[in-house]
Amino acid sequence: MSSLIITEELKQKAEYYYGDEKCQEKSKFLLQEVGLPRGLLPLKDIIECGYVEETGFVWLKQQKKIEHCFEKIGKLVSYAPEITAYVEKGKIRELTGVKTKELLIWITLTEISLDDPPTGKLVSMEEFRQIGEVLGSLKALMVFKDEIRINQRQA
């Protein structure tokens, strides 16, 4: 899903803020309110952020793309200049602008949620599905590549 264009019409329905300090405060507060870790979005130089309470839509704009390594779990995550999502209790869905590196491949995250019952660990079923698809495709390519080599040797 591509990121939603933040229009003036959307802003009329939203609570929105400008400046890094205020947006850092508001984004951490929102994450805490929906039961997610406050450090989930370690953004820098946030220009603008907003939240439409009736739909749960949220957006954050930062100066430039950043990468952050979550040392405890050994994950490198990339955050685009614009991030959009819908938030609800224990879950971020329809996420845009966030990728994680798996096996030298950047995988787009579209959903982040907490385990239920709570274990305190973050899971992303969409990420696991995408990784499975990528690994399946790579395996198929490797098998196909081996078949090509075998056919070339026989010719």
Can you put this structure into words, describing what you see?
It is a single chain. The protein has 155 residues and is of the alpha+beta class. The chain has helices at residues 8-12, 20-33, 125-154; strands at residues 15-18, 46-52, 57-62, 66-70, 75-88, 91-102, 105-108, 111-114, 122-123. The chain has a single domain, classed as Roll (at5g01610, DUF538 DOMAIN). 32% of the residues lie in helices and 37% in strands. The protein is built from three helices and nine strands, in the order H-E-H-E-E-E-E-E-E-E-E-H. The protein is globular and about 40 Å long.
How is the secondary structure organized here?
Elements: H1 8-12, E1 15-18, H2 20-33, E2 46-52, E3 57-62, E4 66-70, E5 75-88, E6 91-102, E7 105-108, E8 111-114, E9 122-123, H3 125-154
Antiparallel strand pairs: 1-2, 2-3, 3-5, 4-5, 5-6, 6-7, 6-8, 8-9
Tally of individual domains: 1
Shape: globular
Q: How many runs of DSSP E, i.e. beta strands?
A: 9
Strand content: 35-45%
CATH architecture: Roll
InterPro entries: At5g01610-like, DUF538
Please summarize what this structure is.
InterPro entries: At5g01610-like (IPR036758), DUF538 (IPR007493). By secondary structure, the chain is of the alpha+beta class. The protein is built from 3 helices and 9 strands.
Descriptors for this entry?
nine-stranded antiparallel β-sheet, 155 residues, alpha+beta, globular
